[in-house]
Specification:
alpha+beta, Aspartate Aminotransferase, domain 2, eight-stranded mixed beta sheet, four-stranded antiparallel beta sheet, 38% helix, binds flavin-adenine dinucleotide, binds iron/sulfur cluster
Length: 419
């Protein structure tokens, strides 16, 4: 294989679609929304592309992360990444709580960063106005901008695309993304002091996997959106917890239409999750170990309906994350009660099993000569040993079957990329 390193990342199924490479080298690397493979980078042909790609791969957490520098002192930290403290709560602003995916905590923390003077902007993603099936990476500087991103987008999105702008500018910017996005941001900050100086805080959302555009189109079919209709809104979560999946569009007569909402459990469980990319199935960090703060759903105390008042699980992973949460609590931006540090395991039992299965999946892939991500010092083998025998076997044998069924040895190529 002779392609440049970023094209190889994509070809070997190691790319997560975070966008860091394209953000750092916008003149040589661009992102393409491939319906099947996800939002992926395409490197310009020639020397310019080769050089950019060789530099960009140093920022890319898709192929490798290093857990050895993370502060992990006990079994909770070793299982989940650093957990300094945990809370369960919601945004103090009722609209943020209502519009948020779980309790609106991420949006509330972002807004508090702006109003407290910690930051000038918040880098995050929002649905594209011209095509809400797709997402764009934006830097918001006010409440209205932040609200555009409230609620999870269960679709391909690349927030790290904004890292280049943050590095080149002179503003303080909070970075919000999935664990893989934040891992690339962290790697880029280690490589570039100017970038690190411009990011006072990172916030990760928990993530079980990112569905592709094919999944979004299947969801639109289920919601009864006519093919070719002008979509004006697509919501996956929010407006209550966990919220309904719902679409709006303009029909052939020019009238606005809105679908019935379907429950999150149906949308995620029966439609979206089966289209997660293979990279997500070998992902070793679903809860944002490299962030200052990580936020997810407190599933140990689930909502009784589809649109209950929202609640978020908020985890401080670094001292500066913990200090900022305390500040947000004092200011009333966040309303939350402390929880014991092991709440993360009670809230996300499925993700612990998923982390355990990853070691078996990667071994199965390596045995077939396929590339796998490398997460140095994470201790995946220990997590795998903790699985019941049946799940251990399944993690290896199931992967062999999947490799054959999905022909995962084939190179992923994105239209326009080098071959
Ligand atoms: C694909 C996906 C899978 C998830 N899986 C889990 C899971 O297994 N367990 C769990 O507890 N939680 C999961 N979540 C996270 C959960 O849905 C909430 O995002 C989290 O609880 C934060 O809620 P909130 O109300 O505090 O955030 P909000 O206030 O609603 O803010 C959400 C923030 O996340 C950003 N965001 C939304 N979608 C994306 C995206 N695709 N990529 C990058 N940034 C994005 C928005 O820009 C916004 O800033 C997942 C989210 C996504 C997008
Ligand atoms: S930096 Fe991100 S988008 Fe670029 S190749 Fe790596 S994982 Fe993919
Ligand atoms: S599962 Fe992992 S690799 Fe996939 S989108 Fe989520 S954090 Fe990124």
């Amino acid at each position: 294989m002779t392609a440049d390193p970023i094209t190889r990342m994509v070809a070997c199924n190691l790319c997560t679609g975070c966008g860091a490479c394209a953000g750092a080298f916008p003149d040589a690397i661009r992102l393409v929304d491939d319906p099947v493979n996800g939002r992926r980078p395409v490197v310009a042909p020639g020397l310019r592309g080769q050089e950019a790609s060789r530099s960009a791969v140093a920022l890319c957490a898709g192929g490798a992360t290093d857990w050895r520098s993370l502060d992990r002192s006990d079994v909770i930290d070793r299982d989940w990444g650093p957990v300094l403290a945990a809370w369960e709560g919601w945004a103090g602003d009722p609209e943020l709580r209502h519009r948020g995916s779980s309790g609106g905590a991420v949006t509330a923390l972002g807004l508090h960063a702006l109003t407290s003077g910690l930051a000038d902007g918040v880098a995050h993603v929002a649905a594209r106005a011209d095509d809400p099936r797709l997402n764009e990476a934006v830097i918001s500087r006010d409440r209205a901008g932040l609200l555009r991103g409230a609620g999870s987008r269960y679709a391909q999105a690349s927030p790290a695309e904004r890292l280049g702008d943050i590095a080149r500018g002179d503003e303080q910017t909070v970075f919000v993304g999935k664990p893989c996005d934040v891992a690339s941001a962290q790697k880029a900050m280690q490589a570039d002091r100017a970038l690190a100086a411009n990011i006072p805080l990172t916030i990760a959302i928990f993530c079980a996997g990112q569905p592709n555009l094919v999944a979004t189109d299947r969801l639109l079919d289920r919601l009864g959106v006519p093919k070719g209709a002008q979509l004006t809104d697509l919501r996956y979560r929010g407006e209550g917890w966990p919220g309904l999946m719902q679409a709006s569009w303009v029909d052939e007569n020019g009238d606005n239409q809105t679908s019935d909402g379907i429950p999150y459990a149906e949308g995620w469980g029966r439609i979206l999750q089966s289209e997660r990319r293979w990279r997500c199935r070998v992902c070793a960090d679903h809860t944002g170990a490299f962030a200052d703060i990580a936020v997810g759903d407190p599933w140990h105390a689930p909502p009784s309906g589809d649109t209950d008042a929202g609640r978020s699980l908020i985890v401080a992973r670094t001292p500066r994350g913990a200090a900022f949460i305390h500040d947000a609590l004092r200011a009333g931006a966040l309303v939350a009660e402390p929880r014991s540090r092991d709440v993360i395991a009670r809230a996300q039992p499925n993700l612990k099993a998923t982390h355990g299965a990853v070691w078996g999946r990667r071994i199965a892939m390596r045995s077939l000569g396929l590339a796998t991500p490398e997460d140095r010092g994470q201790g995946l083998f220990r997590l795998w040993l903790g699985l019941p025998a049946r799940q251990k076997l399944q993690s290896v044998a199931g992967t062999w079957k999947r490799v054959l069924r999905e022909r995962l040895w084939r190179r992923v190529t994105i239209p326009g990329s080098a071959r």
